[in-house]
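Hey, quick one: can you model this chain's 3D structure?
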Amino acid sequence: MTLLSVLFLSITAVAPAGTPVDGIVAVVGSVPILHSDVVSLLLESGVSPDEARGLYHGDPLYDAALAELVQEKLLVEAARRDGLYPTPSQVNERVELFLVERRAEFPTETAFQQALSASGLTLATYREVLAGTMAHRMAAENYARGISGTAGLTLPSDPAGYLSENIVAFREIMGLVNLEWIYLPVIPGNTVEAELLLTQVRGRIERGETTFDVMAMEYSQDATARVGGDLDWFDPGDMTPAFEARVTSLQAGEMAGPFVTPFGVHLVMLTERDGERLRASHILRLVPVEPHDVQRVLDTAEAIRVSVTNGEVLFSEAATEHSLDPTTRFEGGSLGTVFLAGWDASLAEMVSVLSPGEVSAPVQIERGAAVALFRLTPDQTPDLSGFSPEDLESVVSSFLWQRAFNETVDSLETEIPVFYPGME
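Sure thing. Here's the predicted structure for all 424 residues.
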């Protein structure tokens, strides 16, 4: 599913009896928040369309998304009050930059326009929708940017010691947890035609009949085709794990594939290596992920969860056997100590309510391109050994800013009325 269709997917599911399909779920000052606004945010955060349409007030994911929107609207109202609302020219500049980024995700302008049309939009209406969204986001950013300046934040001289002395506050504000996961990419199933084509292309390159960049310009179906498939430099973690797992072992000039990732079928050539940094080119044949592909992975994840919960297998053993994240698979799925405050709000909320040792239900991540199981480790003692001094300074700085932000939002809630129709 394209980004455009995710952002503007129509809400067509039938709501529970007595619940309107769309309606006002909160009012901040004079600004309403619609049920469809919450669903759109859930879709942006990677919740599947079917799941998002079935969520309503009372569900942790839904309430977390609603709380995020309420916070944003509080900041928007405060920015409007204090003269920090962006000008039309500033909004238009942001919209145009956003459109440039979105167009780059499509091989041609025609493909971009077709995606708009499939979402029920024209370019003019898309710009109009974006302008309203961008204006609010920019206003919230403007107001939030001033919080650190007015809070008088001073970093402690010993960030690690400060964190250790304030563990409870860091857990509450930064979502500090020790976490494990099992990562399962959603791989499209109907790939035979694409794999056959790229096998033939690889053969032609290996026989010296042509070059990789020429074949990329002819056959690749993503935006890199025009530059011969060049992906430029990337660091570990920049690419999807299913891609990195096949590329990291290559030497310059070697090819891998055809192989399948959530995006389709790839043929890759490593062009340069600088330590862990890599530069590669690829030829991508797009293969859409079908609903049954997603359901297949969800069913696999649920079967793994049940076997772990029933004590048939340890979580670490299941991670080693099933997870396709190359950086954690052979570490029992351990993500170590993480700070959920840097995660998507809905996903962070889902993980934060787990008890130590509990395995989450399967959750779609990466805009539906993968499914994950998460588990809080039984031992929640933070391990800061993997954090550099710079990382710890950044974490403590974020903590101090977030604490000031929370205090500001609490203050705004006493100044700007927030009303939840039908919830009080």
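One thing worth noting: The mean pLDDT is 83.
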